[in-house]
Fold each of these.
Amino acid sequence: MIPGIGVKRWLLLLGSGIAILSLGFSFLLKEFYPLPNFFYYLTFQFISRGLRSGLFGLLGVSAVIIALINLNRSLLAPFVETNPETVVNAVYDYRRRGRGPKIVAIGGGHGLSVLLRSLKKHTSNITAIVTVADDGGSSGRLRRELGVLPPGDIRNCIAALADDEALTTQLFQYRFGDVDSLNGHSFGNLFITAMAEVTGSFERAILESGRVLAIRGRVIPSTLRDVTLMADLKAEANGLCRVSGESSITKANGSIERVYLEPDDVPAYPEAIHALLKADMIVAGPGSLYTSVLPNLLVPDVARAVEASSAIKVYVCNVATQCGETDTYTAEDHIKALEAHVGSGIFSTILINNNLDVDFDPPPGVELVSTNLTSTRHYRVVAADLVDQTRPWRHDSDKLARALLNLLQQSKGVKQ
């Protein structure tokens, strides 16, 4: 009887159907009157009609309830054994998430995975738009050797949206050790690559991989074209220099002046545009500013769709700097870099971390991002405690999801 699980309507229809069937059967019996004498005792005609009605009603309802309970136990027993949640709670959560807000998350790498891992608890209407500019590690090798789009960031997001952290999800993230040609490859990357060969398309491979892990939402690339991320860096000794490839940017010595795609006029994946225009909320980040977030927004149609969307648009500023990419950056530096590449009007809200009072033993060269803003310009700046207490240089998944959902709820209140 819990509201919202979509069962009561069908129970009512079932009861109505049984009542109509009983009425039809009674009319049929009437055609055979007079009935044999034993029907007099079988139908308890020796007691009053009111008592008979209550007695048969009680017996009928009891029979239906017992039958439904045992039928459901028989059908759902295998699922109950493997899932500690009760069936009712599982159905209720499924229905609730299905009615959740349409949220589009833009990014790549581990940052986007952190957000998706908690966001899936609140809604199944999630679309993760992921960069395909990765050229390092396992993804880079598969890209160079087999000519496929890099699957690594997509694999991480699929795993983050998986229904649970079951063995299949762990297998998808498994990385081979020192085994000749498999050295460094993850099983998920190889799986997606093989699926692309079997199905004939990369987008079909992503869809089927998501089905294998029963993900809550969907993961799509920002473009299906082969793109290279380029960067102009300012080095103290040599002035400006140009670096080609995402993996080379953070290794080069110099501060990033700008990044761009080559070619720079690639079309967006149509489903990405559709998702952005239908979204209730669009979130860029968290993640590497220049190598995860911006490569998606540098696809012209993606940036235009974000700007045209009526959704609340939030940029999530990183809680810590990143070596070789955003060294010494403050929150304001992140915002300026975003403006320099995609303009000042594309995002209306900036979400920053305000918990800087944490025990911090970071990796070398990493420090918490200062949130002092000299000017908020035309943005709405929202500050909240977003850090992971165990790893303060990263966002806490649950804190971040709650902060974003609160922003969405507030924006709906304003619109109403």
Amino acid sequence: MSIGRRGFLGHAAGGLAGGTLWSPAVHSGGLLRGPSDEQSPTAFLMISDTHVLADAGDAAKLDIRSVAVTERFVDRLNELSGTEIPEASGGGRVRELRGVIHGGDCIDTGDKPRVDMQRTEWAGFEDFYGLTGRDGRLKLPLYEVHGNHDSPRGDGYAVQRIRERNRNRPGLTAVSENGLHYSWDWGPVHFVNLGIVVGEVSEPARRRRYAPLGSLQFLQEDLQKHVGSSGRPIVVTHHIDVLRYSQPLPVAAAKAEGMEWDPADVRAYYEALQGYRVAGILYGHTHGRNIFRWDGTAKAAKAGLATFNCDNSSHFGGAQQAILYFEIWPDRSIVREYGTKDGWMTAGWTPQFWEIA
């Protein structure tokens, strides 16, 4: 059975991140079925919108606010594996983590003409988060995409560095011809990282506000080659959110060119995922948590692709932030949220969870 047909089942009791839990059914007493210790899920974390910031007055240094919150945040990530999860959040323990997926906006000034700040920010990002789990403060491998604050047109310093990192990123199954998009496997699950947006289709031919850089073609070819008709679960990550740009076609050129994601590309992306077992579409950008089913339209649906919009995770300007913890089992996925209200000085599990079968 394809993941996503039986709806989200959640235990809703408020939560650190706020917002409304969308669910066709409410589940209120621990997990529906306790995971077997004889099985081992594919477990990982999703973070997003870290916005590592340099000091505008002295671009050779990081902003002290950014350093403080990021250090606390990374230390929290390092402490999570093996810790208890409260019953209100589904119970159990955090499983052995494969790594961390980053939904973009790694740094803060990649959309501005301050290359001096960008270089300092990226150096700080790599010091904090590393690449392999052995070369930075973070003790887990990191798999990032770029966002609009990294390089909206895909020609900035952060994107150059991601391309270089992909040459040394261990365990990849494929890398795009331009060196930016990539895929890998954690156990039976296939992961694809696609940058800021997914696109672009040849018609209509018009300027895209954010450059897709061939991500749609890479996705189509990668899934055909590495997943095909196997029924393997897939997880796809990009930066920009889908709902706002899931507009009925055609959309006038003047309107589409002002949008962050061309609706024609969004439609093609949705169609490219049909026929695959989508365990999750992951993205950030909005600085708010939103978990829903996507049926290709601009509203959350009762049936469709399981979609996870992660809150910002360590932004220097806010106190309330969060991440997502995923367990992908053979027959279902379980997702929990872990967050803070004081910039990671303290942290805890949001008292709700989502189970997707």
Amino acid sequence: MFQLDTKSRRTIYQQVVDNVKELILSGVLKEEEQLPSVRELSKLLTVNPNTVLKAYRELEYEGYVYSTVGQGTFVQKRQKGKVDEELLFNGRQSLENGIKELLYAGLSEEDTLKEVNAVLEKFRKGTGSK
């Protein structure tokens, strides 16, 4: 469920954030579903609990999860038809950076657009970004 790459240049905390986002966006974690406790996830990943806590706080700040004292951390329910401006901004930045990387890698604009469409098609089929 959660995967860490110890050889990655991305911090462990950021990898936890990315993993949870991926699980939410791909539908593995459903709205209102409880995430593992900080202690459980830190044991599972063999990382410091503060690392998981920092990741959960970042996810809460970004609007992906919410915490209830004494109960845990849960996937935030998305309001249909309402656009979260901060998530939209972050998504656009990520998309822009991804497109820049594809162009820098040598793809033409046409091939870059094909790659973007291929990713969208995966989401239409419900297979996420894997």
Amino acid sequence: MKGRRIDARVELEFLRATEAAAIVSGKLVGRGDKNAVDQAAVDAMRSVLGEVDIDGLVVIGEGEKDEAPMLYIGEHVGTGDGPAMDVAVDPIDGTTLASKGGHGAISVVAAAERGSLFHTHIAYMDKIIVGPAGRGHISIEASVEDNVRSVAKAMGRPVTEITVALLERDRNNEKVRRLREFGARVRLFGDGDVANGIIAALEERSRIDMLMGIGGATEGVVTACAVKCLGGDMQCRLWLREGEEEVAREEGIDPNKVLTLDDLCRSDLAMLAATGVTDGEFLQGVSYVRGHAYTQSIIISSLTDTMRMVDGKHDLRSFSSFPSVNGQATSHVKEHVV
């Protein structure tokens, strides 16, 4: 990094990228085409990131170059004139939510010093995320009961008052059953892995105390940037599907290794910007009134040691070059399911 003054400016530039992605993709909310929603967000986000004075390398993106023409893993973003940074993008966290008009879809960019963000081609990881009060009181190797008991004790609350969020997938059913039998509260969510992980780490602004379960590996790395800035804690272990043992060997990764927060984000200088696409517990979605778009965003950053909520009003004429703003949509994004 080249200094905190540059870093502060970069935070706001990344915010512009998530705002643009949310505004442009928001015009397609509820139309049932999640690939079109995603493509609109990708187009807008990449356009703004190209103007940012960083030497950025996409390490978490839309996929490999042959799968995604833009914001692919390994793509360079920014002007090249500025700090060297790893960039993790999720133009729409919750594409299915957005396409159906559901709650909680957001646009996200996270970044840290070059070479500091974990990357793997393995699709899933088992995660535990907590806020500052639970830091040092979780272990991915312990049972769900022991983890909830430990966090409840650290927070000075009974187990029955601990709420655990899990992605609603069959692979998490056993954890859900055990948590309910143990007496913890369970909150299931259909999509929005990143948003719910951040909510769990926010603590004072959240009704979720922990996130557990198997979800996207790339989403886990994006979330880790925010968790680190917020002073929370996170542990993961890769969850291999059939045939992924070879992938792990090629990458030199031990799939049984416990991945700590410092493994996922090795730098203490990190940040995350997110803008709501549809209304949710985390952020309000985009609304359009008389030629303007209204957004709600958050910047979580250790670069300036701040967490800022940002309400924006944007003239839609500034986004007229994007097809979706004019009621058109094209799609060439490969579908990704968490």
